[in-house]
Structure formats: structure tokens, C-alpha cells
Amino acid sequence: KMLVARPGSIVPSRSRSARRPARSTVVVQAELPRWPLVFKALTDAKVETISPQEAKARIDSGAWILADVRLKEQHEAGHPEGAVSVPIYETINLAGADVRKMLKAFMYKSNGVNPVDPNPAFAEQMKAAVRAAEAETKVPVQGVITCCEAGGTLKPSINFPEGKPSRSLQAAYRIMAERLAPKVAHLERGVFGWYQADLPIEGDYTPDIGRTPMAAAEPTLQRLNQERGYEMRPEDKPVESSKKLWPW
């Protein structure tokens, strides 16, 4: 029988030759499944959400790496000490862009959001980060901790029965589904939580608070919009108005 995959689904690949053993590779479409499916997969697998302090301890051990999955330009502006940049999205470059990308960029800009597309090299860059860490430390990487700006959450609540989506949770799903690392964990409150915990930061990090774009029907834009809901706590240090990395 022919196996037909729905858009965004994950299906096992089949060997073309009956004489060769089946391989355990998976094929992942460019667009992720909708958030409820991602949420269920992560919660069923009991993916950990760890505090910034626990994340730093694991990184310092040399057995875990911290993957900053924000945009490359966000990472370059400021990031947790020791984090490696593996963006799950990339800014759309209008120079030489096709019609689809130009229309997408226009829609994003009209909603006050930096125009992005999924990073087609995400999987290879993540595997390269794992290999580089092992080459440097001579210690096998046990797992990857993903972080983005605000972190999102897998904790259900009355208002958010399926948690809150985020880029770091999307990245955690891909790492798990595509077997890009032995284990994966998710940084609580993201880079913002690391900043609030007064842990070392390289560069000039400023929380991206204060930009709440209008809602839009495009699924990726919805997910990026939802991520801007920071979890604020009474003990948090004051945060000034955010500075923008882009001119719109």
C-alpha cells in the first residue's frame, strides 16, 4: 500500500529494496503540525522544562548544550553565555525573493512582525552543533536544551489548556521527532528567564517586551505572536521598553 502523508505529518521512510533492512529515518515536512499535536507529542514524551539554574549546571558539565533557536540576529545581539545559535526560523531576504516570500514578508510587516521563513538547514545545523560540542569537550552530548525569547510552556492552565507555543518548544519537537540528539529539554521562560536569573549573558541583551502584533490567520505568524506572552513574576527586575532589531 502507498503511504500518503498529510501536510506537516511525520511518516517513516521505506527501503526501496526488499533485500536491504528498513532504516529508522524519518521525513519531516517543512511546516510543523499544529500546536495541539506538538503539545501532545512533547507531553506524552515527558519532555522536561528546566530552570535556568539547572540548565547552567547541565551546560557546565559539558554533557548538554544550550541551543538558542531565536533568529541569528537576535542571538548576535545578546544571548546566554555558552549558547550556540541554531535558528528554527530565518529572516526573509527580499533580495532575489520569489513571489511567495515577498507576499509573506508584506503580511508579516503589516502585522508588525519581522518576516521569517522556516530555516531549511535547522536539522543539519543542530547535528553540527552536537558534533562540535563533542569534538571540543571530548564528552558525548547527552542532550540539547532549547531556548527562545519567552519560552512558552507545557503547563496547562484554565486560559491555556494546551500550554503556550513557542519556538523553543517547536525546536524541541523537531529534535525529538528527527532524533537530532539523544535527549531534549526546554528552558523555562527562555532567554528572558536566564536574564531574570542574573546568569551570564554575552552581548547586549534587551527583553523584547512591548511588541504585541495584531492576530493573523497564517499559522506560523500566530505561533510567533503567541510567544510574546511573557510570564512575569513579582520578583522580576524592572525591564525597560524593548529596542527593535528591525525598522518596522
From TrEMBL:
Domain Rhodanese: 60-203
SUPFAM superfamilies named among the record's database cross-references: Rhodanese/Cell cycle control phosphatase
Basic and acidic residues bias: start-end ranges: 225-248
Listed GO CC annotations: chloroplast
Region (Disordered) location: 214-248
Protein name, entry field: Rhodanese domain-containing protein
Protein source organism: Volvox reticuliferus
